[in-house]
Specification:
The complex is a heterodimer of chains A (about 400) and B (about 250).
Chain A lengths: L1 E5 L63 E5 L5 E5 L1 H6 L8 H9 L3 E6 L9 E21 L4 E22 L4 E10 L4 E10 L4 E10 L2 E10 L5 E10 L4 E10 L5 E10 L5 E10 L7 E10 L5 E10 L6 E10 L2 H8 L5 H20 L2 H20 L1
Parallel strand pairs in A: 1-17, 4-5, 5-6, 6-7, 6-8, 7-9, 8-10, 9-11, 10-12, 11-13, 12-14, 13-15, 14-16, 15-17
Antiparallel strand pairs in A: 2-5, 3-4
Chain B lengths: L2 E13 L2 E14 L3 E5 L6 H9 L4 E10 L2 E2 L5 H7 L1 E4 L6 E5 H13 L5 H14 L10 E2 L5 H15 L3 E5 L7 H18 L2 E6 L12 E6 L2 E6 L1 H10 L12
Parallel strand pairs in B: 3-10, 3-11, 6-9, 9-10
Antiparallel strand pairs in B: 1-2, 1-4, 4-5, 7-8, 11-12
Helix pairs in contact in B: 5-6
The chains are: A alpha/beta (about 400), B alpha/beta (about 250).
The structure holds adenosine-5'-triphosphate (ATP) and magnesium ion (MG).
Adenosine-5'-triphosphate (ATP) binds next to strand 1, strand 2 and helix 1 of chain B.
Keywords (chain B): ATP-binding, Nucleotide-binding
Organism (chain B): Phycicoccus avicenniae
Pfam families (chain B): ABC_tran (PF00005)
Chain lengths: ~400, ~250
Amino acid sequence: MSLLTQTPTQGEHTHSAATMVPDASRAERVSSFDVAAFVVPTGREEEWRFTPVDRLGTFFRDEATGAHLDWTETLPEGVTTSTISVADWQALGVPTPQDRAAAVAAAHSGGVGVVDVPAEAELTEPVRIRLTGSEQDLVHGHLLVRVGRFAKATVVLEHTGVADYSEMLTVLTGDGADVTVVSVQEWDDRSHHLAQHDVVVGRDARVRHIAVTLGGGVVRVNTNASYAGPGGSFEGLGVYFSDAGQHLEHRLFVDHEAPHCRSNVEYKGALQGETARTVWVGDVLIRAAAEGTDTYELNRNLILTDGARADSVPNLEIETGEIEGAGHASATGRFDDEQLFYLMARGIREDEARRLVVRGFFASVVARIGVPEVQEHLMEAIERELAGEAAA
Amino acid sequence: MSTLEIKDLHVSVDTEEGAKEILRGVTLTINSGETHAIMGPNGSGKSTLAYSIAGHPKYTVTSGSVTLDGEDVLEMSVDERARAGLFLAMQYPVEVPGVTVSNFLRTAKTAVDGEAPKLRHWVKDVKDAMGNLRMDPAFAERNVNEGFSGGEKKRHEILQMELLKPKMAVLDETDSGLDVDALRVVSEGVNRVKEGTDVGVLLITHYTRILRYITPDHVHVFVDGRIAEQGGAELADRLEAEGYDRFLPAGAGA
Ligand SMILES: Nc1ncnc2c1ncn2[C@@H]1O[C@H](COP(=O)(O)OP(=O)(O)OP(=O)(O)O)[C@@H](O)[C@H]1O
Ligand SMILES: [Mg+2]
């Protein structure tokens, strides 16, 4: 067993918050289908303490709105979509909402949009669902992605436009499935998006969840991974780029209950502009039964300009000694002027040198995405974000 | 024919106790094709001189001048200096994660030449230069200086010198940390560039052994932020035999 904890602290890194975790264990957090089980958050609660809840009041109202986003789908052969009731969704034994916004979204969505990939299907093209908002009315969105046993599939969810979007996404994967779910947030900067993504990793399945968050005023994606049986592997990858005025938050909770499962989390973010804000919380719980677990999580933030703030909080709870390995690393650093000097000393102009360094920073995680069109799009988007800085 | 002219250069760094003067009046002229060795004890200001020529923001020039063919180098940004033909092989090359050597070299070459190199020639030039420096071709796909050994970093610096073909190259302790074989390979690299391009070289070193492979036309002994003595190659031999002691205050040692 190896136990690594590496938390170098540079620049704007804030880690102090980690010491005031009130939960005795991450497992004890309230979770329920019942909205009333959750109070309206004030921002003092553990799970809301980084989030600007004052900008999100409508997300906590226990009522349906009837609003929806524009839905465009591209379905490879064999993949089907349908709608089921919330009751039927619950009856599938899905993970429960973990906070009030998720409970409200699940209760008031009016139905669950289902994407089904049949067992043993081998998709060569991604399933693509494009959700576009055009007004600020609160939308409760509720999705279920179901991938049958031994199927191989990539599902790309894209979010654009103006919206207040409260989302509940459940991903259920069968035994031995090989699944990649990509959620891209490229909202207009007026938009708000709170999401709970539950990923249930089937026995011996390999599931990758990738969050790409570039646009939106407040975006908070909570990704929870759990294992339906032994031998499963979860990879959580994330890339975010926060500009002035943006609050981009990613929370992960990997719940190791089954033995011999693996998880690996890598999130990288850049911040530029005063008031740019990011939060990353990575909780990993290895329960007593989860012998042979192997887990590692990493978060790195690159602060490009003064006034930006990144919080990074890894938490590792281990209830068994019989594990393969568990570790985490978290670091937040300023843009490295020595790297800039080195490149410029070879004749490279400052803006291009900065671009090389930032691209380089993201390169490792982008390369792991493994969906070429998403990778290319992301690199282009990062270039645009950087160019935005030059114009500002 | 180019000339790098350094006149009465004073340079300080910011420290917690305020500005600290490190270079205290350096005057030195280097012409194309010449090799000047600067030798001096640790902390005498050799790297400060190198970085000041390259334009590192940490160093403040308080007086004096640096010109390249009459152009004011101190007015130029770091990248402008490189494009004007100055090159600094660093004592401690910087790691740039996620940027491959091949991408870096091509970007630098394009910047220095003002146009992208012809692909076919370029690939061959890089391959040949790496071969000459006994660098495994796999280095091209590794990230710049990341995980390189000390010797590999130095080879990579000279590789850049070979490919970028500067007018004036400052080599800051390129020899330190090299074993004998690597020292020979790296020295051969420098000599190849000297023969091929008539580059002027300012070779900064603590030890004389590299001067067995690269013959200096002039040797300058650098002590306490200024040149304390100058001579030809024979001065290096004297330093080898006597050390720096006679230049230092009694008891300081080097
Ligand atoms: N930021 C700084 N604060 C204080 N002193 C500094 C700073 N930077 C450099 N110095 C001092 O300036 C002096 C010259 O340093 P420099 O690196 O130029 O020496 P050097 O001759 O290259 O030494 P070496 O042989 O060890 O490479 C040293 O005494 C060093 O400690
Ligand atoms: Mg030095």
